[in-house]
Structures are given as C-alpha cells and as structure tokens.
Amino acid sequence: MKVTYHGHSVIEIQTEKHNIWIDPFISGNKLCDVEADQVNPDVILLTHGHGDHVGDTFEIAKRTNALVVAPNELANYIASKGIDSHPMHIGGGYQFEWGYVKLTQAFHGSSYTEEDGTIIYTGMPAGLLFTAEGKTIYHAGDTALFSDMKLIGERNKVDVAFLPIGDNFTMGPEDALTAAEWINAGLTVPIHYNTFPIIKQDPNDFVSRLNVKGKVMEPGEALEL
Ligand code: NI
Ligand code: MN
User: Fold this and answer.
1) CATH code (residue 27)
2) Which structural domain range is residue 141 located in?
3) What is the pLDDT of residue 51?
4) Which of 57, 115, 203, 207 has the most other CB atoms within 10 Å of its CB?
C-alpha cells in the first residue's frame, strides 16, 4: 500500500483497490499539497469533529459517495446531512471489505462548528488503528500522552505511527517522544504541527531525538509499505 502525508493530520492510504483518507482537512490547510475537488476517496476515516479534521469531508463525500467512518455521535451527525456513514466507538473494531478499523482512545474534545456558528458536540474523540494488506497504521488523532499507548504497542505490530507533536492542543514533542517509545512502531511520523502559529514545532529536531525509527514527511511525500 501507498501512504501519503498531505500536511496537518491528513493521511491518504491507497490500497490495491481502495483510496482511503484520514481527517481530510484540505481547504484552509496551508500545508496541503492537493485541492479538495481533486481527491477521490471511497472511504473517509475521521478521528473527531474539529474543523481541522472533518475538513472537506462533507463536500468530498457528497461528490464521491465515500463512506465516512467515525465515532458514533460524529457519524450520526454526518448521516443527518445525508452522507453514508458507519458509526464505531472506542475499543471497537470492524472488518470492512477494504480493511480493519479499530478506534482507540484519545484525550481531547470533539465538536463541530456549523457555518452559522452553531456548535454541535460530537461525542468522544478517538485515534485509530487501520490494517490492510498485512500492514497496520496507527493514527493517534488529537490526543495527550496516555499510558495505555503502551498497550497499543504491546498488542499491535504497528508499521507506521502518526503522532501529533504540535503542543497546545495535543502532545508536544517531549510527550510524543515517550508515546513513540511506547507504541514502538516500525516508523514514527510527526503530524499536527506548523499549520498554525500556535502549533509551530521543529519536526526534524523531534525525529533526531527519537529512540525508535522516525521520519519527517513533507506534504505530498509517500511511503510504500
Ligand atoms: Ni482537535
Ligand atoms: Mn486538531
């Protein structure tokens, strides 16, 4: 499979037959290397309801008929807008035709702000484990460091872990170094930094301090797994 980073927390997974996007925040994401009307996912996975994660989900899903997989309350909200969605919840896994998804805990918030400013609370935020073609990706979503990341590392052979390092809203680099050690992925990739001034970080410094293998991915850069 081919795994491409598109800036912020946006990850694209291309398997043999499916195009899967995680947290497609494209419009308004100054780091993103693509336009929202150029992407053609058949699946969108969402970690939580914040605008910098839901991003262009509504427009994309309406155009491509992508299935949106999200924590239950967020999935129900998305379904209320006429979009095909699959609700899940933390600790639950499901084998889809295109891969296995398990939601993990994340310590954060989850709400969606509509165009008129109405705030809709969208339940619990999550991280996710995605497995297809024998490879497992952990996308931590937005989260603090939590000690059960040790369990994620012990119980899963994670090939690539995408961990937030931006600080302020999520783990900063110091906590993410510990997270990376606990998750012990084959490759650790920092995300959720430098999109906004408040989450400015040096990803190269982070990677240089890792005790596990790491890599800074530039927007548009891909890994072959
Ligand atoms: Ni968030
Ligand atoms: Mn965020």
Assistant:
1) 3.60.15.10
2) 2-217
3) 98
4) 57
Overall number of domains in the chain? 1
For residue 80, what are its two tokens? Answer: 């209320």
pLDDT for residue 1: 97
Phi, psi of 170 (to 5 degrees): -140, -170
Q: From ligand 1's centre to the CA of 14, what distance in Å? A: 25
Q: Which ligand is in closest contact with the Cα of 48?
A: 1
- The pLDDT assigned to 125 comes to 98
- Residue 88 backbone class (left: φ over 0; alpha: ψ -120 to 50; beta: rest): beta
* DSSP3 helix / strand / coil % (the chain, rounded to 5): 20, 30, 50
68 alpha carbon – ligand 2 mean position (Å): 18
Element (H, E) at 14: strand 11-14
Residue carrying structure tokens 């998804």: 101
